[in-house]
Amino acid sequence: MKLFVDVSKAMSDPNRVKILKMLQHKVMCVCEITGALGLAQPTVSKHLKVLEGAGLVTSSRDEKWVNYSLADGSFSPYAATFLGNLRHWMEDDPEIKALISSLPLIRRENIC
């Protein structure tokens, strides 16, 4: 039951849903996510920690950046199911559309 509750709690925040939708389109570092959402870096880091704990996001170090990407779902069947369904959800939401369309302009080399 804990894995199910962790995924459910992770998805209970709109900013965490936005992070997942962005990560569907590109691997991002904290500063890129911060720039896209207009949130403080500690806030974004907390969101990423929750998402990672639920098995929805993974991280890897690349020189000076920590890259975040969607998990493959192997951690939890609930995370796998949610991530699979999320690909089809909210594609027409105006806020998500605007966020996704801004991604090509957000480059870590210019922000970090």
Automatic annotation (TrEMBL):
MF terms in GO: DNA binding; DNA-binding transcription factor activity
Domain HTH arsR-type stretches: 1-90
Signal peptide from the UniProt entry: none
The entry's keywords: DNA-binding, Transcription, Transcription regulation
Gene3D superfamilies: Winged helix-like DNA-binding domain superfamily/Winged helix DNA-binding domain
One Pfam family this sequence matches: HTH_5
Keyword flag rRNA processing: no
CDD domains reported in the protein's UniProt record: HTH_ARSR (cd00090)
Origin: domain of life: Bacteria
NCBIfam families named among the record's database cross-references: HTH_metalloreg
Name listed for the protein in its UniProt record: Transcriptional regulator, ArsR family
UniProt lineage: Bacteria, Pseudomonadati, Thermodesulfobacteriota, Desulfobacteria, Desulfobacterales
